[in-house]
Design a protein that fits this description.
CATH superfamily of the largest domain: Periplasmic binding protein-like II
Number of strands: 12
CATH class of the largest domain: Alpha Beta
CATH topology of the largest domain: D-Maltodextrin-Binding Protein, domain 2
Oligomer: single chain
Structural class: alpha+beta
Order of helices and strands: HHHEEHEHEEEEHEEHEHEEH
Strand content: 15-25%
């Protein structure tokens, strides 16, 4: 008895329509209305304001909805948990990631994951544009840096470091910059961003330059730096090996910006299926 009408009430609250709620639940509008009315009678509380044009929650209805939503989410999680214990990961995952990082780091890991879990297929769109995960039907996004969308859930996968660097040959010909102000005297090679970021005096500092040229691909910038064409600011996965073997020299390390977090992001109102949870854990393990 206590559960009767709760699903109908939540559906009406979220759709603000008895008709849309009935379509979502696959029952008649009259059935939804009867269940909600019976629930109001049992609680002796008015849950909705009803007009011919609009249905909206009362103050009591908003409080009741928040608790009911939490209960239903918990029930859904419980059902998924026991179901997943008896199942194996399978089906499709739709994922998006930044172009350079995705190509260099994420795609090889996705391939390894699909070798291990042969019934999972991952469709990936590499893009530097922030896509709407819900609107475009993505299950997961890999994002780097600060997150601005509070409607999303996120898990930290690891960190990346951005290095300012140049080749020994370039530095021999043009000198070593010893301060941020000296960078304007050098050949600065830019990518898709119009500026470089640093940390000076405990504060973030951005600097813009007139580049000798610019590429929208990190691999081309690395090659240009190795061939002595100028200074670049690029993430560790592109330049770390070259710095280690002496092909590139790290510059102005005291001004380096703090490491950026790498995130797995997914819609707030979407429970993680077994296949997605396993993928997120797999990425976190291998990226870290």
């Amino acid at each position: 008895m206590i559960w009767e009408g709760v699903s109908e009430f939540v559906s009406v609250a979220e759709s603000e329509s008895f008709t849309q709620a009935s379509q979502k639940l696959g029952v008649s509008t009259a059935q939804v209305s009867r269940q909600v009315s019976a629930l109001e009678q049992r609680l002796n509380i008015k849950l909705f304001y009803r007009t011919t044009r609009k249905v909206s929650l009362t103050e009591e209805g908003r409080v009741f909805y928040q608790h009911c939503r939490s209960v239903l989410d918990g029930l859904d999680t419980a059902v998924r948990a026991v179901t997943n214990l008896q199942s194996k990961p399978q089906g499709k995952i739709k994922l998006t990631a930044p172009v350079s990082y995705g190509e260099q780091q994420i795609l090889p890991l996705l391939n390894d994951f699909m070798v291990e879990y042969t019934e999972v297929d991952i469709s990936t769109n590499l893009s530097n544009q922030r896509v709407d995960l819900v609107e475009e039907g993505y299950d997961l996004a890999i994002r780097i840096g600060n997150l601005s969308d509070s409607t999303m859930m996120a898990k930290k996968l690891g960190k990346r470091t951005n290095y300012l660097c140049a080749s020994p040959g370039y530095l021999a010909s043009n000198g070593m910059p010893n301060s941020l102000s000296e960078l304007s005297q050098h050949s600065c090679l830019l990518g898709t961003s119009d500026y470089w970021r640093f940390r000076e005096g405990g504060k973030e500092k951005t600097m813009r330059f007139v580049p000798r040229f610019r590429y929208n691909g990190g691999i081309g910038l690395v090659d240009a730096a190795l061939k002595g064409l100028g200074i670049v600011q690029l993430p560790d996965y592109l330049v770390q090996d070259h710095i280690s073997n002496g092909g590139l020299i790290s510059l102005l390390d005291n001004y380096r910006e703090p490491d950026e977090w790498i995130w797995a992001v997914y819609p707030h109102n979407r429970q993680l299926s077994l296949k997605i949870r396993l993928l997120v854990d797999y990425l976190a393990k291998h990226i870290a």
